Amino acid sequence: MPAARLQLNAPKDKQVTAQQEVKFDFTVSNFTLGAASPGAEAIDLAQSEKGQHIHLIVDNGPYSAHYQSKFSKTFAPGTHYALAFLSRSYHLSLKNPEAYQAFQFTVEEAMANEPKLYPLNEPMLFYSRPKGTYSGAEAQELLFDFYLINADLAPDGYSVLATINGTTTFEIDEWIPFTLSGLPMGENTITLELVDAQGRPVNASVNRISRTFTLKS
After folding, report:
1. Nearest Cα to 209, choosing from 151, 142, 127?
2. I need a surface site. Which of 53, 64, 95, 174 has the fewest CB within 10 A?
3. Is the per-residue pLDDT at 150 higher than 90?
4. Confidence class for position 69, pLDDT limits 50, 70, 90
5. What gap in Å lies between CA 2 and CA 16, rounded to an integer?
């Protein structure tokens, strides 16, 4: 979907809001929220019954899915950084450069005097999937997806180390979709880390992330 575009209307980058409830407003072009993605019926992965959506990740926590371009969420006082990107109905991120927005906002006026700002122009790595609990057939094959900004993966450049359950590590030098299979039932943990061409961890504000998900038979 190379023409899909996500535009941020509110909050503006570095905006200060007096309320803990933050109103988000996006403009989505060439992409229909709430619709099944083309070819989704032939893909044997967990699907959202509500269709295509926006993934919103704040402070690199687990994403929330939104099926409308306008919505509200409540946050603690302070400065927060956020990534929003378009997602297919089977939760695969759109990776074209117009399909995401990275921004930050400060909640409550009292926090605006010395806000902790984030360098959103440096390499940043975000975890997306797997997430939550998978049961039955959905637990057999999982979408593995993450999001990168300000960094291109290449055999002689940046790469992502993905460690599964602390024992098996894969080096990923191409930003493409992957699926995982053969994982044990119960809790599983994936740790992601962005490294440079020499295999050294990138000293970025957002880099190493671990996330646990559950499989049930």
Report:
1. 127
2. 174
3. yes
4. very high
5. 33
The whole-angstrom separation of Cα 58 and Cα 86 is 15
Confidence class of residue 112 from pLDDT cuts 50, 70 and 90?
Answer: low
d(CA 216, CA 64): 22
Question: Does the predicted TM-score (pTM) go above 0.85?
Answer: yes
**Contact between residue 216 and residue 139 where contact means Cβ atoms under 8 Å apart:** yes
- 168: how many CB neighbours lie within 10 A of its CB? 8
CB atoms inside a 10 Å sphere around CB 38:
11
Residues 6 or more apart from 122 whose CB is under 8 A from it? Answer: 150, 204, 205
Percentage, residues of the chain above pLDDT 90: 82
- CA gap 25, 42 in Å, rounded: 32
Is there a contact between 55 and 85 (Cβ–Cβ < 8 Å)? yes
Work out the burial of residue 67: count CB atoms within 10 Å of its CB; fewer than 13 is exposed, 13-18 middle, 19 or more buried: middle
The model's pLDDT over 84-93, given as tens digits with 9 standing for 90+, comes to 999 999 999 9
Beta strand 53-58 with 64-66 is antiparallel
Element housing 73 (H / E): strand 70-74
Q: How far apart are CA 67 and CA 4, in angstroms?
A: 15
124 pairs with which residues across the strands? Answer: 149
Q: What is the pLDDT of residue 207?
A: 86
